[in-house]
């Protein structure tokens, strides 16, 4: 019996991972991605820096992984059986994502930071935007298969519409999310895409 | 004859105003709205702080005025005679605004800053968003008068659509502005609004 972790198979304790993830979000809110440091995250999580490097090879990979692990699953929508239902679920899920208490302030910082460091912005788009859009495309392809959308629907523009109005309304304009705004956005998207059911 | 400016009627030299406005934008890009100072702007413009206070009563009022003077006129669209033409001109003008060399990085910072200081964000929305939207509403009302849009068209949602897709595409996703993207957005908006001419 030994108390040492076997060197060839590091055991990652889930509660340590959780503490680190929380610390990453808190540091992102306090300092922004530019000034976040491995030291700061480790200190806030109450762990050594080695605990971070055991999980991620670099600061940038750590931040991207933490943000993607929160963001990508939130774009996964259960098939409701209709395009209207799927779009409604999508715009609601997008709203939950961009107003997520952990994520809301981080997103605006990431975008501003992206203007200064395009390579960092490209990493965010690859790690978060790309996989999230694949979920949107899957939703749209289901609707094409059901005959609810024309086969040549503009997938890229449609995916933009699934997110852009809520971001503009809530984050740029800081407007209220009226009870029926998501309903109105849903109907607008159905019309915009030329849905047969609108 | 005296060389002193009459105290009751300060003469504001236009070339000084231009130098100050340029300095405000440069400071906004370098430091962000949070760390911009009257001292920094004055030094960069090569004028005394009194030249700033002669024009604006405070830092916040100065920044808002400078941003609004750039942003609001850019939302003014010449009546093209048709909704399709007006929407195409609007989405092109929005694109020019959010990618304006002086403004692009400032906008992302303003939004991020707005998450930290809601009262500052509200001032931006009042000084820029409100007047810009009035121009959008005027465009939409012209279309209603021409019979191109239903009288009960959702003006608020329509105004969001005039800007949101381009912001999402270019600033959040950092995607390319394909030659035909604005054409596709225009047709999408016409369908979304239930235009009689789409």
From TrEMBL, chains A, B:
Keyword Protein transport among UniProt keywords: no
Upper classification of the organism: Bacteria, Bacillati, Actinomycetota, Actinomycetes, Mycobacteriales
| Location of the DNA-binding region in this protein | 37-56
Q: Where is the HTH tetR-type domain?
A: 14-74
Give TM segment ranges.
none
- What's this protein's name? TetR/AcrR family transcriptional regulator
Q: PANTHER family this protein is in?
A: HTH-TYPE TRANSCRIPTIONAL REGULATOR RUTR, TETR-FAMILY TRANSCRIPTIONAL REGULATOR
Entry keyword set: DNA-binding, Transcription, Transcription regulation
